[in-house]
Amino acid sequence: MYQTLEQVFGYRQFRPGQETAIGAVLAGRSAAAIFPTGSGKSLCYQLPALLLPHLTLVVSPLLALIQDQLAFLQRHGIAAASIDSAQSRDDVADVMARARSGDLKILMISVERLKNERFRHFIAQVPISLLVIDEAHCISEWGHNFRPDYLKLPDYQREFNIPQTLLLTATATPKVIADMQTKFAIAPDDVVTTGFYRPNLNLLVEPTPGHEKRRRLVQWLGERAAQPSIVYVTLQKTAEFVAAHLAQNGIPAQAYHAGLVHDKRESIQRQFMDGRLNCIVATIAFGMGIDKSDIRNVVHFDLPKSIENYSQEIGRAGRDGAESQCLVLANRDSLNVLENFVYGDTPEREGIRQVLEDLLSARKDGQWEFLLLPLSEMSNIRQLPLKTLLVQLELRGIIAPRYSYFAEYRFKYLIEPHDLVQRFQGERQQFVQALVETSSRARTWATVNFDAMYQQYQAERSRVVTALDFFQEKGWIELESKQMTEVYSLLVTDFDPEALSEELHDYFVLHETTEVARIHAMLDLFASEQCLSHRLAQYFGDTQAPRQCGHCSVCAGHVARLPQPPELAPLEQRRIDDVCGEFVDKHLASRGHEPSVECLTRFLCGISVPLFTRLKARNIAGFAVLEDYPYAEVRDWVQQHI
């Protein structure tokens, strides 16, 4: 173990916790490594992977994290690869061949890859020593970045006969740790935590009214202008607005968020990493996998989404061990915005019922096929909660994923159709001729007609797709595929849809309650009269942190009394017809019935759901007119007045 540490990785000694976690894995036991951001969790699987006899399979939630770690492994001469959707068929085949031959030590994938029947069939034939789950708090419904597909990982471990698991995360509360332990049968002694206290981080909370925040941000960053800084905001439009404001006031800054085109995001990130840009104003899209050690300041211009998010985001500061500032410009103004994100993810009972009815309509075939976007629109359930619903149906043994395929293929000829046909002989030539004739050609693109190919030529879909891939590889056509179709097996069809939709709705409501409580726990932390570092460590079950850190705003004598948001006019002064009469009419015309209480509340609070996109709700009078009011208060008011 020590020899590998020095010869391969170039380190003389382990960081705290690493040796214990690695020792447990090499002794053949499952383990969990819960270390703060930037404390060397990755080594806990990288080193054992070299010493274990078979493949180490790493599941990670983000492509950026995978690419970052692959680059590190390849620099150290470790045989590692990934399989992802951006790769060509040849690249994937090459990785699979290396895994089968035993040449590969580490294979990195996203959790969604395990839904693919072809991949599951392949991985079942490869001996695996260790399953590694990065960002492992995602497996817990009590974790802050809950990813529905992570819930199935214990089943996958059993399915592939993987003897042991290593869980890695920086943010797990005692409740989440207990959940992780239970799901993967990890002994208490093999849960390695190194504590959450970071002595070099100064945690500062400044009560700042909304109208004062921009002025205070300019003043505060102006005193630290040459230092690498991240400013976190909730919304993309706020990121643009604040970055422009900083630039106007002499602080060069760029907005970074998921709405930017990929190349621009990459360019901004590179400038920041290289030190050509010192300030980024970002949504939480920025930071995962960012390994820049000298970030001196992290500012929360808006409230973070939870204590876990806050901990993860401030964890990007001061990884070099030098003193760093973490400032929250705190008030309650954006509290309702944060809560509205949560409420928008709770499907209506009727929407759940529609999904169940759609599933039951496929029972004759024993196979349920759907496109996620149309199912989302039909049920009016956002795509992420819809995926959660599908996983819940899997966990209840009602459905099982089989495979996915693209519903539509179209291609552009790069050589003349006649020349394409002439490149083949005999039966293959007849097949290609049939493909050319049955594909309907517009001016530039020809769309493949799979039904016609089967009826006229008995050609299976798989043969047509293989041929198209081959033509593209040869440079004879340009190929495009779209509309990913999910295919599930139906295992149970005699359930009561009414009772099951009620049960599933209750599950989502419980999750909603938990998430709202998480937001309020964060406000309580910021308004704490106790040392902030101690309170933060305590939240994560760390009892070793000092009771007085001496470097937070509370220890400096500044307890944050968070200003209340501006007072709002009583809802009783409004008439419901004035604010949503036009929307009710449009809903009636489109859906054939009036909107539910939940639907009206979401419209008035400006919470986006698939139906609103179709109705162009943002252009209807009254949309988001009550977004500053608490959701529950608006819902009660709607209930009383319709």
Descriptive report:
With 642 residues, the protein is of the alpha/beta class. The protein folds into four domains: 2-193, Rossmann fold (3-Layer(aba) Sandwich), CATH 3.40.50; 196-360 and 494-566, P-loop containing nucleotide triphosphate hydrolases (Rossmann fold, 3-Layer(aba) Sandwich); 405-488, no CATH class; 571-641, no CATH class. It has a seven-stranded parallel sheet, with helices on both faces. A six-stranded parallel sheet has the order 8-13-12-9-11-10, sandwiched between helices. A five-stranded antiparallel sheet has the order 14-18-15-17-16. Helix 11 (262-274) links the parallel strand 10 and strand 11. Helix 2 runs parallel beside helix 3 and helix 14 crosses helix 21 (497-526). The longest helix has 30 residues, at 497-526. The protein is globular, with a radius of gyration of 27 Å. The termini are far apart. The model has no long low-confidence stretch (mean pLDDT 90).
Write the layout of secondary structure elements.
Blueprint: H1 2-7, H2 18-26, E1 31-34, H3 43-51, E2 55-59, H4 63-75, E3 80-82, H5 89-101, E4 106-109, H6 117-123, E5 128-133, H7 153-159, E6 164-169, H8 174-184, E7 191-193, E8 201-207, H9 213-222, E9 229-232, H10 236-248, E10 254-256, H11 262-274, E11 279-282, E12 297-300, H12 307-314, E13 324-330, H13 335-343, H14 349-360, E14 367-371, H15 372-379, H16 383-395, E15 399-413, H17 417-422, H18 426-438, E16 440-441, E17 446-447, H19 450-457, H20 461-473, E18 477-490, H21 497-526, H22 532-539, H23 576-591, H24 597-605, H25 610-614, H26 631-641
Parallel strand pairs: 1-6, 1-7, 2-4, 2-5, 3-4, 5-6, 8-13, 9-11, 9-12, 10-11, 12-13
Antiparallel strand pairs: 14-18, 15-17, 15-18, 16-17
